[in-house]
Design a protein that fits this description.
Layout: H1 12-26, H2 31-38, H3 42-49, H4 57-67, H5 75-83, H6 91-98, E1 103-108, H7 119-131, H8 137-153, E2 161-167, H9 168-172, H10 177-192, E3 197-202, E4 216-220, E5 226-231, E6 236-239, H11 242-258, H12 262-274
Parallel strand pairs: 1-2, 2-3
Antiparallel strand pairs: 1-4, 4-5, 5-6
Length: about 280
Amino acid sequence: MNKNELNPDASPQAAFGARLRSLREACGWTQEALADRTGYSSVHVSAVENARKPPTLRFSRDLDRAFGIEGADTFERQYREIKHGSLLEGFPEYKNFEGRAAEIRLYEVGVVPGLLQTPEYASVLAHSAVKRGAITSDQADERVSLVAERQAALVRTRPPLVFVVLDESCIRRPVGGPTVMDAQLARLIEFAEQPNTVFQVAPFDMGEHRPVTLPITVLTLPDRSLMSYAESAQRGHLDRDSASALPMLTAYHQLQADALSQAASVALINELRKGIP
């Protein structure tokens, strides 16, 4: 039987398929034999091996069980790297903690953060990155889907308390044109009206009194432990040490004290909306 040559360097998906074939052949299994062990068809196994079809989380976990793989080098880990290939290193891990945090504190500069973005606003940002050549169209779609996924994870029986302080640049920077921007500003007002949220704007005239100048995130987990997350241009950094996160929490409280009140912040956004054509 003819066998296609696989190039694991062609893409992360191709590397997944090449590894799958290598392990399968090392075990002496045919595609049919592996299909029997995972509950999938041999056609599906072949499609993933040859990178014609992307792996799924369920299939990756079934492969780990079939091959007896545990630890850091699982197919599930490889799948998650493919799925989040357009994201900064460290962010997927942060996202898992964000989805179960009891309290979330965000400070953002320049753009509205993902947890508050409308789909249209998120799409404009993602596809702008495509035009710059930073990511592919598929990765842009993944980013937009991730925004919705993160927001859905916060709709729970006991939702987290979410504190958001936006630098004034976030609400004044035009993104996607008047229609997109007006809808995004309306979304911020809706967010402020929720019973489990606090929304504030840090105005430009805070000047040197601003205790932080870069975006920060502080999570409080159900056990009251703290962790912080920050991003550079190359990667995201998740710090699980409560002692390290405490100074950031203190700075965040100082930022809230000097920022506009929620009522004043909403009033400012309403004024901006009046000026949108």
